[in-house]
Batch of 2 targets.
Target 1
Amino acid sequence: MMLQGGIILLFSLAYIGFLFAIAYYSDKRSDAGRSVISNPYIYALSLAVYCTAWTFYGSVGRAASTGIGFMPIYLGPTLMVALWYLVMRKIIRISKINRITSIADFISSRYGKSSSLAGLVTIIAVVGIIPYISLQLDGVSTSFDVMWQHSELAGAIPPPGTAAILGDTSFYVALLLATFAIIFGTRHLDTTERHEGLVAAIAFESVIKLVAFLVVGVYVTFILFNGFGDIFGQAFQKPELRDLFTMKNAGTYTDWTWLMFLSMMAIMFLPRQFQMTVVENVNENHLDKASWLLPLYLLVINIFVLPIALGGLLLFPSGAVDADTFVLTIPISQGQEEVAMLAFIGGLSAATGMVIVATVSLSTMVSNELVMPLLLHFGPLRLSERRDLGGVLLTIRRCTIILVLMLGYCYFRLTGNAYTLVSIGLISFAAVAQFAPAIFGGIYWKTGNHLGAIVGLSAGFVVWTYTLFLPSLAESGYLSPSFIESGPFGITLLKPYALFGLAGLSPITHSLFWSMLVNAGGYMILSLVGQQSLMEHSQAAQFVDVYKRTQENDFRLWRSTSSVTVLRSILEQFLSRIRVDEALNDYAKKHGLDWSKDDVADAALINYAERLLAGSVGSASARVLLASAVKEEPVSMDEVMYMLDETSKVIAYSRELEIKSKELEQATSELRAANEQLKEVDRLKDDFISTVTHELRTPLTSIRAFSEILHDNPDLDVEQRSKFMAIILKENERLTRLINNVLDLSKIESGKMEWHLTAVDLKEVIEDALATLEQVIKEENIELETALAEHVSLTVTDRDRITQVMLNLLSNAIKFCDSQAGWIMVQLKEQDYTLSVAVSDNGPGIKPENQEIIFEKFRQVGDTLTEKPQGTGLGLPICRQIITYFGGDLRVNSIPGHGATFFFTLPVVSPTEAEADKEPNYASPIFANGKTNNR
Amino acid sequence: MLALSSLTARPITGKNIMAKKVLIVDDEQNIVISLEFLMQRAGYEVAIARNGEDALEVVGQFRPDLVLLDVMMPKINGFDVCQKIRDNPDLQDTKVIMLTAKGREVEVAKGMALGANSYVIKPFSTRELVAEVQRVLEEE
């Protein structure tokens, strides 16, 4: 007897052992660099993990009650795969660049490597997949029971879940599957994101389940019946089966649409599909072949669904046999034990494939996105200091696998057999469909933000829980059925299958409508309203523009000082030493580094390490781990901005502009100042010319007036005539003097004065000047006093100019000294290589505020109200210019009412220089006090 | 310093009964001498002021029909004097001729705006000046 319990178990174990061998073999091949899975056919077959016990057993059950109603679940993926070239390729590219480990990692990475979002996605995935796991347990344990009790086939099969736990097949099945998943999913100490052996085993399982199903199909169709025509013909004869050929029981078009949408999402976002399609993908181009191979697989495996369902209904018209078990019960009832055994193995394949991949991906998520972040955040555990974190990680994953299966078992026990396999599966589909807005938004819409994703996902998940998950528990009697009938606390608006009065839809369609509405709505609204963090902004740009970027210009958000040694130790916590060596050596080779010399880990290397680590623990944890261990220099706002290249350009430009405009401002103000100065100079020149004009016109006025008077009045007496003539002559002199002064001044000021330098004895100059004015002094009755040093040193100067100065000072003294008792004193002294000359008078003196003004041009200071001082107003300015030119100083000391003393100094020259100086026309005089004149 | 001097002028018979009075204001001694000579020759009664302050004082006492007013003087300049004369209601009929060595148009305009009757630029033609004084005095 082939179908004894022991034999069934033996077959099962043998099959599993064989699978293990395949996995082991392909891992070995992979290590040797000859990967078996690196081919598009294996890839496509591994994607067929989509077909589970649901397909293997459930589709037939579904077809038996709804006819073609099982089909949307396979049409959806077929449609979706057609769009993969656009969507999935992008997701794969993004995931490869970021070393994405799971769908939770993917979403969290997009929204700023957020741990909270990763945790949320993980929770949704785990809770959402539990019904699906329970479905597998249901399928497998039912198949066990069917096989076990085949002899009593005619009778009813005891419903699963009614037996005590120890006698409960499903419990052992759960344990068996857990063991199996642990063996396959967590064999390696290296917790990398990819599992070659697993993929190979899954691909093999896909072959087995397809072959098994086809064998049963062929057996039923062509051996039990005479082909499709025969089965359909016979079924058509029966009125109760006729409806299966119409759309009557197949569901409304609305339901079809939603189911297709649901399965379109499921083929992408079920954690196991994401694991196989994205994470385990070896080569992006494998997607091309998979795009038609997978739909082909789905088509082939579904060809015999309807014939088997109809055959079963024809064979067991009583309805006593569960249609979900037709694949097994038909061959068993016909005594075809081999076929039954093959079908059993096929069903086992379908279920184990799903459970292994799903639990592996869920355990990765739970360990990476829930447990690790928590452990890393709890400082006291000092986790980051432990050496063997890879081991910790594996333990966490193994526990998670057991936990997930046990949760699945509990759900199975709670819901009992109130649901068909398919409706349980759809609950899980609806859960993972919640990921759609965040993922599609994430890869096509840069504005989508973290808050939007969190709120959208949470809201969608809450609605899903309320409208599908809780009612599924209620229907099994663990929650009050009134919850479904009349809503919680009798509030009809909150009825879970007719929320806010939206009745008349199937529970799945109803739940999807509301959950998608709040999910997508919340996501979009908050994304539009909210802000993105810098990290998010950079990730968003990287995800959406993934085709535009190469790995090289990847964002470098690390700015670090770390050593390769430190990095190595962090990596070795999670990865084997050999793998770390390999990875680092690869990097060194690529970048021309030598680790024995270079120990400085730059940003690029840390980035590389982060990605390496992300492959093991997920991007959020990888970042936390590296951040805690790598001494990261604070990334300044400016630097972050620099990394966001568009922004950085704008910043750079605006900064440049700012600098430019500052420079311009400065230049402008300098120009303005220069312009003001020019204007001032211009104004001074204008004033000067205007003043000179006035000063010239004044004597000219007198000269012309008296000339005309003399001319027009020949009758004037002699006295008047000679008086007028004298005035004309005097004004003439004044005019000449003025013109000479103006010319002198402009020559000195413009540097065009010709100086005739000789060694001059000042005493001689003073005596000459006094001699010139001797007559005037006598006429004015002025008392002259002189105190001239007997012998003074020579000075180098222009004798005529110094004489001019002396005459000017003496004339002023004569002009201003007391008109009754005039007194003038002239002194000459030599002290410290300096000659000084003083001319004093006993005139009215000069007020202190005027003592500098008198040296300015045309600024005579009149001391009487009536008499305008005589002179050009240029004498003293010219004198000062001359004295200054020869390195001396001209000033006045005066107390108003007590006369004034004008004095000037001139430097002396040493005797040898004086000798040389006696020669005329020497250039560049060197003065005794060391001053050099450059003129 | 007030210098009412008609002694140096030669009397012109038949014309000096109702001789008009002219005040000369200038700080240049020689110009004052020439102006005094010319005005007396033309038969006017002449007074002299050597600066702005004197001018304002003399104008009140002497009540000239016309003031020959130099612009460039220290302290109170010709413009200020002109302004003060025009501001005094008692002196409404007093004519003012400004004399300046700065022949700029702005200055002429400023003088006229302040109410001067005419403007003469130094150096001037003696005949034209006398004619201008006569013309202004005959103005209504």
Target 2
Amino acid sequence: MNYPIWDVPLTGGGLLIAAIAVVHVFISHFAIGGGLFLVLTERMGLRARDAAVLEYARHHTNFLTLVILVFGAVTGVGVWWTIALVNPTAVSALVHLFAWVWAIAWVFFLVEIVAALVYRYGWGRMDARTHQAVGWVYFGSAWLSLLMINGILTFMLTSGKWPETQSLTDAWMNPGMLPSLAMRSAVCVALAGVYALITSSQLADLALKERMVRYSAKWVIVGAGVIPFAGLWFAGTLPEQARFLASGGTPMVTAFTVASVLLSGLLITGTVFGPMLFPRQTHVTFACVLAALALGATGATEWVREAVRKPYVIYEYMYSNSLRPADLADVSSLGLLASSRWHVPAKSDWNDPVKIGRSVFRVQCSSCHTVSGLNSIRFATRGWDKALLDQQIQYLNTLKGAMPPFIGTDEERGGLVAYLISLQAEGPGASAALPARSEGERLCRR
Amino acid sequence: MPTVIPPIDPLGLPAAAALLKALSLLTFTLHLVAMNVTVGGLMMALVYGRCREGHPGALFAARMRALLPSAMALTITLGVAPLLFVQVLYGQAFYTSSVLMAWSWLLVIPALCVAYLGLYLAYLRPSWIGDRSQALAWFSVALTLLVAAIFANNMTLMLQPGLWAPLYATSAYGIALNLGDPMLPARYLHTVLAAPVVAGLVGALMGRRFRSPDAEWAVWAWRTGVRWFHVGAGLLMLSGVWYLLSLPPRVGSQFLGASAHDTGVLTLGIVLGVVALAVAKRSAWLATVLTGLGVGCMVVARHRVREYMLYPHVNAAGIPVHADSVWAIAFAVTLALGAAAVAWLVYRALRCSGSTEGAAPD
């Protein structure tokens, strides 16, 4: 409402966020876990005076520090970059509230990058004790940056006491913070093992391969084994509405929840019956399949985390369409478009309900719905008649729990109905093929 | 023209605007230096990478290449903080211009990833790509220059509230650019020309560092670095004049006498640059310190341009402050500890440079 809206045809902006976010979460978590993996593997090699293990750890360092950290950094910026394009009002709120938390996370991140580069450079140059210390600095700062950012992510879902106290400490130390931190830390360990399986499965020395593949598999099993318990702890902190959405309230969200559990289960099973039991036979292709399962599980879990937040983008503070519950009364009385800075129709358009409705749709619906693409509003309302549309919009939040209430005047609601009806007329024949849903059906649906 | 200035975020600023501005300027200066080392270093590595084996230029390019992946990683990381502070202070303008040019703004992310990958493959894994490493490195340079152009576009578009509504009326698909703005080419050129200046200093400092074991090469590196510094700084000053003249008169005049403070900052920056030029042949370290201070002055001048351009539409000083001193102190402590950690890490890295003994066999 306060910012211009970026029209992304067919997919909407949400898919762009999801694509970058999933890649970032995958990379950043195993970059953190990878730090711990490197330090502990190096220590194992040093204690055993095993040059082969040390050489393996050194080889593993190159790719992790020089590629993953940078791609982790760029995609991390990319996530907020994209969210700011799709929902600038929400990012503005998070940036203003959590500015110091971001700033602290940035310091840890900077230390992490420098430590990772020095750790890589120090192989074969530093004495072992110093090199280990650098490695611990790398892992410690990486995990601390996760600690800081995790509080912001969980705040968006479990805002805790913040709405009453307005305290940054309450916002950051929200109910979901610690369980999510436990869950993400476990994910870091599991993903470190997943990546280590890719490198260890390619070792030519079979005796070394057996040791390192089995060692890597233990990381996956330990990490993935902790995730369900931490996940249950996290689920216990979720608002009732969010738990409802994830456990049957919305078929799509439930499907993704099931997918997350199934993929995680497959990952553990595949790791036990593959690398753990048959380390010498583990091929890099199989390791990549396990990585794909881990990516799928990460993607599904993140998708669920985003989806159960609806109808909010910041729980109890801002709806997914950037409107705030606190502004509801003012905007409803003044009018959505009159309150909007960017989407005021031209004077000549005020008499055209369809044009008013198009503007209302852009301001209030387009953050989740496209016209004809992903989550298409034309498809969602196909066959609905004027009375049913008006009824649905008027009681949007009670009829559809994952959606915010309609905010606007009666005239604007009428305009939105007229616009959605016009879409059916313009559409690829869907409305012609389907009978209009009647008053009787409407009552049945209620 | 309809009013399209987004409202101030109701959550306000987390500290006094002056403190946030100071942090913004400090972190942006660090980012700028790292960026100039990366882009200028890439240019130098490419130019001298063509030298035949045995020529000092070949070793110079190799040593410069070794720096670049780390320099790029630091550039990206150091860029995060000023990006945070610009959102806190000028989010109303920054988010708006970003949305207007959304697709090109988003292009920065894949462009940086590909540029880094190209750099990594070309300079750290050349055996993987054979004789295409030079072409890949050129491609990385082109991408970094493209990223700089996109940034220049957004940073100038955010200063032009009068353009926002017409651009949005033309298209809401995020395809706008600020190509009609006379500030854009001048600002872009000024930014890009700073790269060989700073990288030239790095080259000269490399000559100092490797002086003892490699006397002949060190002299060559020293002279080459200073030459890049001199030529680059001359061109930089010319582009600075163009940039100053491209500013709207009400803004440009502030640096030409209307504001004693702003004129003083600009003059100090120029004087520091000229003195750095004069002493560069005798002391690269002194020239580096003076250049660093000069860059700081220019960053302040750039900040003042932004404030003048946005006033009165966007005014950070007018945003209510909801300060949280506990978290501000926590940041200060973390920053101090982080700086100490970085200093220790760099010290350790420098101490072991050249050594090949240690934890694992080579």
